[in-house]
């Protein structure tokens, strides 16, 4: 007879890591989202060797008190929700309480943090989980080194340094586009790649997207009282052979959602032909209760309570903006 056993914690976390930690960029996503959730005004990312050797995210957010450092590394431990009701109204990027546990199960992980009210910072290494005094001026530094050092089967799926870096860069851009109010910096192997001061949305977009996109972009700003769509949609002259200039955010969260993609695509139906893909940067805002983000561990898919209304709203807002007379009218390329 086969024996049924409860799996040890480390193995449980390593299994969970299969869903959450696909590659360095997925680690970066989780760490960036934690920094955002901590209310940071400034976030600095330093990568080594495409993030495989090291990912370091330093923020100036609320920090973690000494007593909670070990807990932050536990599975299903979160400060962000306490009830089903919270889950249904969740306004933070994270809420599952599993990212740090999963990351720590497949990489050498340390957290250094200075919480408000503490006399000095504390540092915890996930391998022994004993907080020790440390030096840090503010916020939290999470360092994740040697990804998959203990799971060689996963390591084999890592691509070249250049490819893994490109994925990290893309992840960084998504957060930077969503949160232009936060100062953000990215460096790779000691070289600064992006240094972004806090600005408003269009300025951040201009800093991160191609001049050509900005030049061809039409502004979008629609508000139904329940749904709000803002951002930029490029005229067909700046259509692409692939989908990599498609950014859609729902309540600040980057998503790849069939319904939304379809609504936008339909708005372009009469002006964009064949295999070309539209380029856009769109922000949809709605009451968190109207959208379920707990559909997928990476939270890249969402489910809308009133899917039809969302589809129609997005379709009409984008259509209207594309049909408005005049050429690209963001005024950004004039700067
Ligand atoms: P989740 O984000 O879903 O809550 P995580 O495993 O990513 O789960 O993080 C666990 C907890 O650790 C968070 O709920 C938060 O309280 C704390 N935490 C993680 N990163 C930071 C950070 N950069 N600053 C402050 N607190 C953090
Ligand atoms: Mg998190």
Automatic annotation (TrEMBL):
GO MF annotation list: ATP binding; ATP hydrolysis activity; ATP-dependent DNA damage sensor activity; endonuclease activity; mismatched DNA binding
Keywords, ordered alphabetically: DNA damage, DNA repair, Endonuclease, Hydrolase, Nuclease
Choose one Gene Ontology CC annotation of this protein and give it: mismatch repair complex
One Gene Ontology term from the biological process aspect of the record:
mismatch repair
Q: Which domain of life is it from?
A: Bacteria
Q: Where is the DNA mismatch repair protein S5 domain?
A: 205-323
The record's family statement is: Belongs to the DNA mismatch repair MutL/HexB family.
What's this protein's function?
Answer: This protein is involved in the repair of mismatches in DNA. It is required for dam-dependent methyl-directed DNA mismatch repair. May act as a 'molecular matchmaker', a protein that promotes the formation of a stable complex between two or more DNA-binding proteins in an ATP-dependent manner without itself being part of a final effector complex.
Q: What is this protein called?
A: DNA mismatch repair protein MutL
Span within the entire protein?
1 to 335 of 601
